[in-house]
Amino acid sequence: MACSAHLLSQSLYQSHRSCPAPSKHLRFQARPAAAASAGVSSSSSTRSRRSPSVRVAASAEQGRKKIEVVSLGDTIKFSLSPSKSKDRLSTNVAGVPVDDSNLIIRALDLYRKKTGTDKHFWIHLDKKVPTGAGLGGGSSNAATALWAANQFSGGIASEKDLQEWSGEIGSDIPFFFSRGAAYCTGRGEIVQDIPNLLPENLRMVLIKPPEACATAEVYKRLRLDQTSKADPLALLKEITQNGISQDVCVNDLEPPAFEVLRSLKKLKKRFIASNRGDYSAVFMSGSGSTIVGIGSPDPPAFVYDDDDYKDVFVSEARFLTRDENEWYREPMSSNARFSKEDSLSEAAPVVD
């Protein structure tokens, strides 16, 4: 799989401190939160991802994508469990698996396997990122779990270790151990940090219909002879020199995704037609089914006016970066949700 200029927003673990102190309740700044505590606990915010340009090639080794983190995300609450044999995961969303098929549990199992630690956890996932959105919520949750487990274990593994290990359970996970912007090759697991090319105060809006796109079905319908011939590095250079624009938002997965979910093509066309200069680019994220508009946090008017779109998910987002040995911090007043009545609610701040 080859992708270029793949702007991504995904699961992040936000922290004020790098390590929890023993026998102390510790709160990490987080978005959606909750859960049981057992002596030491932390909340972690996860993020979604965004892809203005996705390029697909015949070989997985040729894959390329330019990825950036954004502020929309889940929150995970971790607490040490008295159990030495099992993690316990709960969630606020019905249908989300809570057994070892969930990437959070797989990430914790992987950490114990690699480090030899016997720590287990109570985990609560407060889900805000919709499933089937092409925003990579599961991968980001897994990265968050690895980071959190390492904090509870005194930071015995390096960030490079966590990044390398994470590729064993998901090719999108290693990205989250970048600084927030990266050029990824292979299946996505080879991550090269790059400077953040877009300003963190650049706003965007995400719109997702109730229906999801099955990733396997999207790839099944992909025709490699009809993919874009644009050079991923040329697209990256264009973004560097001139910023984001519609021309660099080349997503080879859009045509097959629009076949799988025809209403998604209609949504993108409607979005573009309604643009009065508010958005510098409108594109589908990943394999769908989220349409992204970069340049304004406000959704187009038809979201409110047309009953066909009364059930869509709408959220504001921004780009995020992180410092070494810290997880991603959420910017002020980001991740707003919009309702049909044109009201919004800010994510409540979490304090120590």
Automatic annotation (TrEMBL):
Residues 37-46 have a biased composition (Low complexity). InterPro entries: GHMP_kinase_C_sf, GHMP_kinase_N_dom, IspE, Ribosomal_Su5_D2-typ_SF, Ribsml_uS5_D2-typ_fold_subgr. Pfam families: GHMP_kinases_N. Keywords: ATP-binding, Chloroplast, Isoprene biosynthesis, Kinase, Nucleotide-binding, Plastid, Transferase, Transit peptide. It catalyses: 4-CDP-2-C-methyl-D-erythritol + ATP = 4-CDP-2-C-methyl-D-erythritol 2-phosphate + ADP + H(+). Residues 102-178 form the GHMP kinase N-terminal domain. GO terms for cellular component: chloroplast. The keyword Chloroplast applies. Residues 37-60 are annotated as: Disordered. Pathway: Isoprenoid biosynthesis; isopentenyl diphosphate biosynthesis via DXP pathway; isopentenyl diphosphate from 1-deoxy-D-xylulose 5-phosphate: step 3/6. GO terms for biological process: terpenoid biosynthetic process. GO terms for molecular function: 4-(cytidine 5'-diphospho)-2-C-methyl-D-erythritol kinase activity; ATP binding. It is found in: Plastid, Chloroplast. Its EC number is 2.7.1.148. Belongs to the GHMP kinase family. IspE subfamily. This is 4-(cytidine 5'-diphospho)-2-C-methyl-D-erythritol kinase.
